[in-house]
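ARCHIVE RECORD
Type: protein–small molecule complex
Small molecule: glutathione
Source of inputs: curated submission
Record status: active
Notes field left blank by submitter.
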Amino acid sequence: MSDIQVFGIPGSPFLRSVEITLREKGLDYQLHAMRPGEHKSEDYLKRHPFGRVPAFEHDGFSIYETQAILRYLDEVFPSPPLTPGNPKARARMNQVIGIIEWYFFPKAAAPIGFNRIIGPRLLGVAGDEAAIADAMPVARTCFAELGRLLGEKPYFGGDSVSLADIMLAAQLDLFGECPEGRELIDGTANLRPWLKRMTARPSFAATQPPPMLREAA
Ligand SMILES: N[C@@H](CCC(=O)N[C@@H](CS)C(=O)NCC(=O)O)C(=O)O
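STRUCTURE (tokenized, with ligand):
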């Protein structure tokens, strides 16, 4: 039996991507749920020197960076596969993961989500409206591209769920909890039905963010 340990702050979409992937593969794991701030503790920084979540350990092998964790899980536990076999479909999956990491999360979801959701609801600090307004143009570009790349397909990698679908749906399920997120998701015709399909999966139902992040904005 494998020993799988996951470290993170509940509510983090990156942490949720790891938990969803584990559940899609039917793997048991131990979640070390941390409080906000604990990810900067001396102890945790030994595991993740950049002080971010999640971190992961499997049979003594420690690793951080979500996509590295997901790709590792998909190789070591290949069933069901979450990486398309076809090179073009795999490239699309990788492209979407790149968009999440380089544009969507740091330039749109982090500034908008922090100032609209995490700051006011979790940390009790008022949101910075100028930071939200500044992030909207790149957020719009992200959604236009994500809608185009999904096209008529059921999932980003084709006919079955891929790591990109898991990572993006975990992000959008939380992002959709603020007015800007809802407007952007609903304004991209194919994304709302795709997100509904993704969040209906048992792996998503079992990894809900804390209710305080979900309250109607
Ligand atoms: N590239 C990292 C990003 C992880 C990340 O930014 N996680 C956020 C939570 S969703 C975090 O740790 N934020 C805390 C902070 O920046 O202090 C990964 O893929 O794991």
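CURATOR ANNOTATION: Residues 12-14, 39, 51-53, 65-66 surround glutathione (CB under 6 Å).
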